[in-house]
Amino acid sequence: MPDWTLLVVLALLGAATGLVGTFAFLRRQSLLSDTLAHAALPGICLAYWWTGNKSLAVLLTGALAAGLVGSLWHTLLVQTTRLKTEAALGVVLCTFFAAGIVLLSLLQAHAGASQTGLDRFIYGQVAYLTDEQMLVLGAVSLALIATVVVLYKELKLFCFDPDYGQTLGFSRRFLSLLLSTLLAGAVILSLRSTGVVLTVALLAGPAAAARQWSHRLGLCLLGAAFFGASSCIAGALLSFHIPQAATGPAIVLVLSAVVALSIVCGPARGWLWHFLRSWRFRRRVEYENALADLFRLAEAQPEAAGFSLEGVARWQQSPASRKRRVLRALVQRGFIEPAEPHRWRLTHAGLRVARRIVRGHRLWETYLAQNLHLPADHLHRDAEAMEHVFSAETLEELARGLQYPAHDPHGHAIPPAEQEGQDA
Amino acid sequence: MSMPTDLEPKQVHPVSVPPVEIHDLTVAYHARPVLWDIDLTVPEGKLVAVVGPNGAGKTTLLKALIGLVPWASGWVRLFGEPPDRVRGRVAYIPQRASVDWDFPATVLDVVLMGTYGRLGWIRRPGCTEKAQALSCLEQVGMAAFTRRQIGQLSGGQQQRVFMARALVQQADLYLLDEPLAGVDAATEQTILDLLRSLRDQGKTILVVHHDLQTVAGNFDWVVVLNLRLLAAGPVEQALTPQVLRQAYGGHLVILDHAAHVRLRREQGQE
Predict the structure, then answer these.
(1) Cβ B90–A167 below 8 Å, yes or no?
(2) Which of residues 154-173 of A touch B (CB under 8 A)?
(3) What is the mean pLDDT of residues A169-194?
(4) pLDDT, greater one: A105 or A270
(5) Angle subtended by helix axes A56-80 and A30-51, to nearest 10
(6) B248 and chain A: CB distance < 8 Å anywhere?
(7) Is residue B191 domain-resident?
(8) pLDDT digit string (tens) for A201-226?
(9) In this predicted complex, what is the ipTM?
(10) How many domains does chain B divide into?
(11) Is B182 a member of any domain?
């Protein structure tokens, strides 16, 4: 069982990378963090080779320096050649990572693999952090969090509209440099926990997950900090229970689960809500169609007491169970009542809904015929779709625009407007 | 860079200081001139349309005015000062397509950005700023949408949000890049009405505009650009058939080429 200090440091680390990662995500710079992380490996090796010192501060300084060289090289590639940003990032990433692996092999051959502990930077390992190392990680995390909190407004403006920000006096160049610095800080933070290979997950994952939950930047940031912190802790705990397990993959697996869950359940743009909304709409369309059909039947035979849906074309094609379900639901909701065996009539509430639907249908047919000059046999299908989506205001605007017609192009009477609309 | 003719303008009496003064301005992207040798003075209190064919440098002119693109030569004075000294008096509306509308922000968030310049670094908008933002949203007819995510708005509504963001800056000079492109008729009317009322308050407004048909009747002044300044002045005087032929007729190929060659030589690329 790890001690509490480690868990607190991991929470801070996860929150810091989540916050910074959100801004990188919004600037579409997530891939840059991946390149910075891979570029860090040769820096770590060289720092160790030169100083013979394994302290985290020295190694991370080497990582930062190498990351800086990598990003400068990237900028140079984009500016002087015709390489696109992504391709240039790929070039830098591969070259530095390959150099790092070669250096690592050389060092390990000389000093012995387990001696250096440098291989912990490839896949991440938080099990053997010393107090001093935790202090370094905790301090850098706090510095990143504080910067994001203090400069939230400026970073938001820069990520949304940097040119406009510049015209307000918020230097585009300075903020770009600031964000790159924050990103480099977040990358070196996650080197020891997720390792160079999987660092991008800790920067992009929490942001991608949080974006599914909210349309507001403040809430996205809180969510990303929370997801980052909890994934780090959960991943570390998981890796302690698997012998010889690296921390990086464990954190990334937890994070991937969080992202997957968010994509399915997130209220802002999750599949589940989307599915639920579309299912509700389809069910409403079913009910409204049934009510409108009963209304049309009553129009045709005003003297009959009740009607069945048997004769209506669209219900003949669907299974009997569906028809029974719809009718039962409409009785339960008080929109229809049984008149005689297997015959129903609209209640007052049902009549109001049916009138609104039929009114929308016939007004739209009139509109299409008058303004778009569509022939009479082209109107019905479009009106079938539109009748369910009109709001009360749109419907009245449409009626006003058509100067309150009494009949549709087929000669059917258009029901007058109700005082207030009501949904099924 | 600084030629004898580029000497700083003499300080004149503040009353007669024009809101926009451009002298011998050249702007180039990668040795390709986009604006060449522009001289222009816009008087105060005018609603000005900036027209010209695609790639004529209209957007670049606006960006050069506020220092968003570097000048290769020449100078710009706004209210008699270098642009970065009068930021508080200038409001810029970029093209709608220049930002990511999927950004997690509400309508109110975006309009509040217009108050950031006054607030300066670190200070956050408070109740006063929110009230100002809401009143500007009301002016553009978007008060009902304050909590809406900006990606869920129509193109016209997005343009109104940008308009409200500029209004909340309470500027004296407005620079708008294609505010009427791809918007519905109601939005066009709202924006034109607002611009006219700003003009009537004595503000100066430069609008990059794509539709020559609607220049007369809606604007007081017109600036016709095609790499060079072809005409500038009251609409009825400046917008002559001859100027339009010059602007849209493709007579500038040789001139364009000459400028291109000159700049490449100067930058040591040939």
Answers:
(1) yes
(2) 154, 156-157, 159-161, 163-170
(3) 91
(4) A105
(5) 130
(6) no
(7) yes
(8) 999 999 999 999 999 999 999 999 99
(9) 0.87
(10) 1
(11) yes
